[in-house]
């Protein structure tokens, strides 16, 4: 039986995700921006929380961890490099460690950049990636705790995953991301078409998640920092990918679209 998923809007633009194994009924939440929406989703589905998977230590991803752990006795799993900043952590994991939610077995990938210890959770058999704030739909997180090229290397690693992996990220930033992507790559027909789709989705109040690795490889400029044509378009012909990524991230930080 396939894994069951529920996407939960939280705060102004965050997402949490419920991942359930229908065979064992084990249920995980990936990141907890706030308690009430997650509880409401669990109660609506009549599911019992067994695991809390944490991608990184920022408050808008861990604010509800302690309350949910206390209520359900859920096992909290998060990055070892951030174990001192994540409350209630039961298992501190590193790159390659397995993570089981009932019969659903994933693995940890370390993706530093947004934070030094950021991790993502890959459930390859289920074709699922929970990317936190490393990879967004048509965008990426800000490199708050590392130099930008570190985040580029993490994105380049995610780019090696199969195209059909569905990606659930931590925020609904897609409309701004898509407009920025078109601003730096205005002749890209795939980006223009995707922007039209996203505008319709947001006008209808529909989430733009999930995306896929294949879609991001085609339309996310931050996944293409080693593309010579893109480098030339932003005025850096022949530059190293790390420098191109750094400039893209700087441009996005000041973008008002």
Protein model, in words:
With 257 residues, this protein is α/β, with parallel strands linked by helices. The protein contains nine helices and 14 strands. The strands form three sheets. The protein has a six-stranded mixed β-sheet with strand order 1-2-3-4-5-6, covered by helices on one side. α5 packs antiparallel against α6 (189-203). It is globular and about 55 Å long. The mean pLDDT is 98.
Instruction: Please describe the biggest sheet, giving its number of strands, its sense, and whether it closes into a barrel.
Output: 6 strands, mixed
From the spread of the alpha carbons, the general shape counts as globular
Cα Rg:
18 Å
Strand order of the largest sheet: 1-2-3-4-5-6
User: What's the tally of helices?
Assistant: 9
The proportion of residues in beta strands is 15-25%
Write the element-wise H/E pattern from the N-terminal end onward.
EEEHEHHEEEEEEEEHEHHEHHH
Strand segment tally: 14
């Amino acid at each position: 039986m396939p894994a069951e998923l529920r996407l939960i809007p939280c705060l102004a633009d965050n997402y949490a995700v419920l991942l359930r194994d229908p065979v064992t009924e084990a249920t995980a939440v990936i990141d907890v921006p706030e308690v009430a929406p997650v509880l409401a989703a669990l109660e609506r589905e009549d599911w019992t929380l067994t695991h809390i998977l944490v991608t990184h230590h920022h408050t808008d991803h861990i604010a509800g961890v302690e309350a949910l752990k206390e209520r359900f006795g859920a096992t909290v799993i998060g990055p070892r490099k951030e174990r001192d900043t994540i409350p209630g952590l039961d298992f501190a994991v590193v790159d390659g460690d397995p993570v089981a939610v009932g019969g659903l077995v994933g693995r940890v990938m370390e993706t530093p950049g947004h934070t030094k210890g950021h991790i993502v959770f890959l459930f390859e058999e289920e074709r699922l990636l929970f990317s936190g704030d490393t990879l967004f739909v048509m965008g990426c997180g800000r490199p708050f705790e590392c130099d930008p090229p570190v985040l580029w290397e993490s994105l380049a690693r995610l780019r090696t995953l199969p195209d059909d992996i569905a990606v659930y990220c931590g925020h609904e930033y897609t409309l701004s991301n898509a407009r920025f992507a078109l601003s730096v790559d205005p002749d890209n027909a795939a980006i223009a078409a995707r922007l039209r789709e996203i505008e319709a989705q947001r006008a209808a109040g529909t989430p733009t998640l999930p995306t896929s690795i294949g879609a991001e490889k085609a339309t996310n400029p931050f996944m293409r920092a080693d593309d010579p044509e893109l480098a030339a378009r932003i005025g850096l012909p022949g530059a190293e990918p790390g420098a191109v990524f750094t400039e893209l991230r700087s441009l996005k930080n000041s973008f008002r679209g």
